[in-house]
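Severity: low
Component: inverse-folding endpoint
Summary: output formatting inconsistent between runs
Steps to reproduce: submit the following structure tokens with default settings.
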């Protein structure tokens, strides 16, 4: 399974996702794409197999991924304080990969039904979804 992890800003969430994916799906190929070099570096240090930075890396990665994981903002143009370009969000939305989006109430996007949950709880649920996809 090819898993594409996308994150921006400092890459903290992406770093956690990479670590959890490595444990949940040890045989998966993890590709980390950061919207900036700091996010990419954080995910690479967490154990991603491959890493790249920027818009074109997101677009290419989306064509090769079986699963895309990241904060919900990756599918909203201009989110993550402007780091997600319209081309990035379109590539993610149009990808044939399954998407596991972490619902974060940040960056001017509020998700109904998402209450004050710890990001660790949200990430554990994301890993449960990922392992269920791997079994199919």
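Observed output (run 2 of 3):
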């Amino acid at each position: 399974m090819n898993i594409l992890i996308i994150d921006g800003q400092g890459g903290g969430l992406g770093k956690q996702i990479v670590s959890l994916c490595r444990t949940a799906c040890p045989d998966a190929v993890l590709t980390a794409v950061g919207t900036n070099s700091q996010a990419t570096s954080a995910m690479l240090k967490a154990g991603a197999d491959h890493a790249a930075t920027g818009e074109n890396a997101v677009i290419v990665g989306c064509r090769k991924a079986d699963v895309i994981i990241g904060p919900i903002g990756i599918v909203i143009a201009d989110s993550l304080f402007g780091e997600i370009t319209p081309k990035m969000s379109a590539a993610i939305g149009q990808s044939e990969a399954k998407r596991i989006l972490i619902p974060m109430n940040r960056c001017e996007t509020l998700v109904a039904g998402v209450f004050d949950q710890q990001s660790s709880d949200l990430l554990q649920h994301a890993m449960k979804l990922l392992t269920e996809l791997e079994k199919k």
